[in-house]
Amino acid sequence: MQSQSTVARFDGEDWRIAGGLNGVLETVLIIDGVPTAFGQFTSAGGQPVGPGVAGWFSDRWGPHLEGLNSNVRSAVMHEGIPHALSSTSTTSTVFRWTGSAWEQVGGAFSLGPGRIVSAGGELFVYRTNSSTVFRFSGGAWAALPTAPGNVIAAEDAGGQLTIATSSSVFRLVSGAWEALPAFPATVSLRTLAWHNGTLHAGLNWGGSPLSLTSPIMYFDGSQWVKSILIHPPRVGAPHPYVSIYDLVSDGNILHAVGQFTYISGVTAESWAMFYSGPPRLLTHPAATTVDADSAAYFSIDPEVYHDPSQTYSWRKDGATLVDGPTPGGSVISGATTPYLRITGANETDQGEYSVRVTNGCGQMTSSAAPLVVVTSAPCPADFNQDGGVDLADVEAFYMAWEACDSAADVNADGGVDGSDVETFFIAWEAGGCD
Known about the structure:
By secondary structure, the protein is mainly beta. Among the domains are: 186-276; 281-374, Immunoglobulins (Immunoglobulin-like); 391-429, no CATH class. Helices cover 6% and strands 48% of the residues. The chain has 2 helices and 41 strands. The strands form 11 sheets. Strands 21, 22, 23, 24, 25, 26 and 29 form a 7-stranded antiparallel sheet that branches. Strands 31, 34, 35, 39, 40 and 41 form a 6-stranded mixed sheet that branches. The chain has a 4-stranded antiparallel sheet with strand order 3-4-7-8, with no helix packed on it. A hairpin with a 2-residue loop joins strand 13 (115-119) and strand 14. Helix 1 runs antiparallel to helix 2 (418-429). The model is unreliable at 208-213 and 231-239 (pLDDT under 50).
């Protein structure tokens, strides 16, 4: 039976099936804004394509970069140009896209099924699970010194070709292989990724002590360091076999694909994004107006919620807020979360509110949003504010009015005159202001 590949695309919220290929999908590159699939297939989504190449055009697969006429084992962007590796069981050939056609790069060479890598401005091809690596130099493909083990992955790590065997990582320095520090014996390597200037490794992890390693590690220049923990949610449960199949760097986000269900307290089924960099906000606090003695709310939407190192500190007019009663009588809650609540807000709570978000890579402060607390004007009929409307209010009003007391300016026009008497008695005769 011919193998099949199902392609899914992430729309920012969920994965959507984009149709299947009638063969093996090897890789996807974005070429001229078009997601382009390379592999061993002749149709995509039921549409004849290729062979070996197809483009995704918004809602369908279609022919793209036509003319290769060969199944593809691997593809890479090299100096902004698509390159594809076509292999038989014994030989390999590399092609590059000229903008209108595919042309061969050098001659065919004895390698068999392999992978192509662009590193340090050069092209390399290696055969997986063998120690053979070729470099394109002087217009021809030439074998490098035999690798120190069977190569399972390769990456451009800061301009240096870096390879992984099952237990070690090596980089090409002046034509020779230089070893990086070894991993614990209880793990084996699966993949490499250069992310934000640091080399990351994805591992097979089966029961190694949590204190020693994690399925994703990074090289800090002298040793391998835990990057993220992927483990079962049950405290004290045996660690299951966990595998990272691939790591992909996309700006400040490292994508991990593998065999796992739980990541640092967050449920994640086989795919996860790890954000590295200073905090970023998708939304900032919004201006808020509330009635006196009601609750006021401010919130933000951080790009990453589940970062254990990420902290929040809400501020009013630049001063740090803490949970609990305020001098003005309101109550603050959520001062160290993405959501701030002010219960029983009053005039003393008016001001500009912002939040400072900090993680292990830096900090940022949101834009400030004003809080306005509206205090209802007192009812002129209940002039003495004793809660009732009666003759005592008439007496209190006339005493203030005859004394030209500003309190008698019940129509708030800036003067104490006959119009205030009219306003007062309209409300008084109505029995109040409701």
